[in-house]
Amino acid sequence: MRQQLEEIKEKTKKVLEENFNSEELNDLKVKILGKKGELTTILKEMGKVSAEERPVIGQLANQVRDELQQVFAEKQQEIKNKELENKLKEETIDVTLPGREMKKGSIHPITKTIMEAEDIFIGLGFEIAEGPEIETDFYNFEALNLPKDHPARDMQDSFYITPEVLLRTHTSPVQIRSMIEKKSEIPLKIICPGKVYRRDDDATHSPMFHQIEGLVIDKNIRMSDLKGVLLTFAREMFGTEQKIRLRPSFFPFTEPSAEVDISCVMCGGKGCRVCKQTGWLEILGSGMVHPNVLRYGGYDPEEVSAFAFGMGVERIAMLKYGINDLRLFYENDVRFLSQF
Ligand code: PHE
Known about the structure:
Bound molecules: phenylalanine
CATH architecture of the largest domain: 2-Layer Sandwich
CATH topology of the largest domain: BirA Bifunctional Protein, domain 2
Largest sheet: 7 strands, mixed
CATH superfamily of the largest domain: Bira Bifunctional Protein, Domain 2
Strand order of the largest sheet: 1-5-6-10-9-8-7
Number of helices: 11
CATH class of the largest domain: Alpha Beta
Shape: elongated
Oligomer: single chain
Helix content: 25-40%
Distance between the termini: 84 Å
């Protein structure tokens, strides 16, 4: 058996001097050292070896196995190196090949408009407040002086989850939430940008759109403060030549209420198709906050007064960038988006 072991060792070493690829080497390794390999077959005869000789032969067998494993490993490495070397010789890299172009993204025009408006209002001392898009009837309507069955609810037909829970139809509920959170402290100056939902769908209305709502509460807040803030906003957003005009309107949560127009961004006020020859474009709703709303928010209408306004971001972006179909904002066509 000793002889057999020596033989297999020598034979294997000799064979390994020849050239192999890694697959052939692996086959050979299995043939010699594998479970049914030659070395294993020899070791099965161990039982026939006499008791005194067994430890010596055992040791020799281990030695042979270790040595062969070592030789195989070395050969394996050698083959690997050779294969890599050959590969490097064959492969050439063309450094003149132009690189793959990385497409640069851009900020969505709606996001861009919101960011711009935020910058303007932060400059005027406002803070940004946010609230949930799934609202309760209380915050979305009731606390805004819109009791159940109030006819003005018709203007804001919504998506209901249960009779008491709905997708918010405007960002005005954030007013109430912020007032309650502020615990009647003054001044409160916030804007609330965010998504809102209504049952509407055409070229100028989408079931989901964005609003920015503003609220200022302090002592002696007057309509002229509202006008000053909105004029500053219009000039920063659309240009220093801008004029604004307030028209009487109705909202249940403001009294008095006003619709605010800016001079037409297309014709500068001369009259054109976009402003329907009026020279004016409506951009937002506003007014002095109704005493009931202040009370719902925990403020005393005898002590403080407030103004609020709310605008549609899509409308602002359409006017600013001359976009005529609101649905373009949501189609994700890069030809449209890459222009911003
Ligand atoms: N919430 C009103 C709307 O969505 C806009 C508005 C806000 C009007 C604040 C007045 C004051 O139509």
